[in-house]
Design brief:
By secondary structure, the protein is of the alpha/beta class. Helix content is 40%, strand content 19%. The chain is built from 12 helices and 13 strands. Strand 9 (189-195) and strand 10 (198-203) form a beta hairpin.
């Protein structure tokens, strides 16, 4: 999420133009949400030297943030323009109507003491579930990557429903149904695709707080266009040399993928070139991906459906 945070009266006590004392739990909560991968935007009326003093104070106090009085560039790119208003999923500000009324009821000191504890509880209720979408040709290492994220980071591996037959008795990654069973599935479809005469989908009620999903480009487009306001969606592209893929899964499956993968690497959040026979190198790249997008912190907190 993009979380907009006011400074005067919210992070520190109100003494403008001076800088007040840091409020209880402000640093702890802001840094906690930053560590979980959320974008922190400091949104203040301070300008010029007063703004620079605030920036220096935040750094001095060790409070982590991503942007100061500016929109997240990802939002600017998504909507094609930059708004004067800070765009955020959540805004924390002591001057909202409810906060002003509350300060009058319990007093400023009482409000200051409970502001960040209440903010922590409220944000935990609205944090978006996350989907790591893993894209790649047959034999590229998608399933191996999803299984590693599950075992190392406790990330729920979404097993999509399909009406195709198993390739081997121990195959994972799908819940295998008859064509009649698939047609009668009940629940809201998160993504759907049809390939090789077989149908694939997953349902929203199968999601946990953080998930991985092996998916094709059409399914990723569906996620991005229809669900980006509900879920944090990260796209992970895995490449592997054709010779190695043919050696592992056979010519038929590799040939079947011809023409199905057309997105450029810069259209994905992260790209892994799985060009080594050593699994550990793939695992290291996955660890790097988790750290760069600060998903390693989020993955350890929840293991129940939200």
């Amino acid at each position: 999420m993009n979380i907009s945070v006011d400074a005067d009266g919210t992070i520190w006590t109100l003494k403008h133009p001076e800088l007040g004392d840091i409020l209880p739990n402000a640093k702890k909560v802001i840094n906690y949400w930053h560590s979980r991968g959320h974008t922190i935007i400091i949104n203040t009326c301070r300008t010029l030297s007063h703004a620079e003093n605030a920036r220096a104070y935040l750094t001095q106090m060790g409070i982590k943030y991503d942007f100061f009085n500016e929109n997240n560039p990802a939002n600017i790119a998504r909507y094609g323009s930059d708004s004067r208003k800070i765009s955020a999923d959540v805004a924390i500000d002591d001057m909202t109507l409810n906060d002003v009324v509350l300060k009058k009821m319990i007093g400023v000191e009482g409000y200051n003491n409970q502001l960040w504890q209440v903010s922590l509880e409220q944000l935990e209720m609205v944090e978006k579930p996350c989907i790591i979408s893993i894209v790649g040709e047959s034999g590229s290492g998608k399933s191996l990557a999803a299984e590693y994220l599950e075992s190392m980071y406790n990330i729920n591996l979404i097993e999509s429903y399909t009406d195709r037959e198993k390739r081997h008795p121990e195959e994972r990654g799908h819940t295998f149904l008859t064509k009649d069973q698939f047609t009668k599935l009940e629940g809201e479809q998160l993504a759907f695709t049809e390939f090789g005469g077989n149908r694939y989908c997953c349902l929203t009620n199968d999601l946990f707080h953080i998930n991985s999903y092996v998916i094709d480009e059409d399914g990723l487009d569906m996620l991005d266009s229809q669900w980006f306001t509900v879920y944090d969606i990260y796209s992970l592209r895995i490449h592997r040399p054709e010779f190695d893929r043919r050696s592992d899964v056979g010519d038929e499956r590799v040939d079947r993928d011809e023409g199905r993968f057309n997105k450029k690497d810069n259209e994905f959040d992260y790209v892994i070139n799985n060009d080594s026979s050593e699994k550990e190198l793939l695992y290291k790249e996955l660890d790097k991906f988790m750290k760069i997008f600060r998903l390693d912190g989020r993955s350890k907190e929840y293991d129940v459906y939200i």
